[in-house]
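On clarity, I found the account of how folds are encoded harder to follow than it need be. For illustration, here is how one protein appears when written out as sequence plus structure tokens:

:::
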Amino acid sequence: MQVSVPFSPEQASTFSGQVDTLYGFLWAMTIFFGVVISLLILYFAVKYRRRSHDEIPRPVEGSMRLEVAWTVTPFLVTMGLFVWASGIYYNIYRAPREALEIYVVAKQWMWKMQHVDGKREINELHVPVGRKVKLTMTTEDVIHSFYVPAFRIKMDVVPGKYSTLWFEATKPGRYHLFCAEYCGTNHSTMRGWVQVMEPVEFQQWLSQAGTGPSMAEQGERLFVQYHCAGCHRGSQIVHAPQLEGVYGRPVPIQQGRDVQFTLADERYIRDSILRPKQEVVAGYEPVMPSFEGQISEQDLLRIIAYIKSIGAKEATR
């Protein structure tokens, strides 16, 4: 069920109706209880007013039923809202595996997008209608916030980490994209558009000239350029972990005398490149140098895309 909230933006994603229904219910509950409580205040003010200066009010005895009612009822209402809102929250922020992946890098004051096939955009994001889309986002400077009002999605983009967000557009169109976190002098100019296209049109747009090599191919070149291949491709000189098939799998990390496992996701790969001594794989020496300050956020995403691709190849063998 979709409830259109007055003064709200157009509904253009599968989340729009869910979020608007929740907010519509909150509005209705606020108005209902506000009116009821206001009327009761007026009623009691008139009914129990002092009729003479020497009037002594009758003693009031407590009512257990009344106490239980006005304690339990708000508790049930608020807990119901908590469960309802939590369901929507987890649905929005847990991206499905089959989603189309797009990488986003924020920078004062622009949004830089790159599709896995290599297509790049600035302040524009083209997506197909009816397709789940996952955004993996980071920033090169300060905190930004990716906000598309028509989709009812918003996610802070924080330096030094990856934020993920997903959506599924329900109708073609052109929708506003804003930065919803004050990020500096020209914050108000950090805006763009999300262009939702029919699947056939989207494929035609992807195939246009200028696409270039895919992100995985660019990442492989960077992998060689930064001499990662010398250690992580079966080198006999340096004993280093092999990366084929590592993405998405648990990795044993040496913590003192103990071994703990962590998931090899985007965060782990990024930290392993920039802060390699923070999480050392069990059985290996902490000899890898740090590349912090040497690799841009965009290049890090390309290297990650390459490592993900060789993980996928390994998994299909």
Remarks:
- The chain is about 35% helix and 25% strand.
- Residues 215-315 form a domain with the Cytochrome Bc1 Complex; Chain D, domain 2 fold (CATH 1.10.760.10).
- Residues 270 and 300 are 7 Å apart (CA to CA).
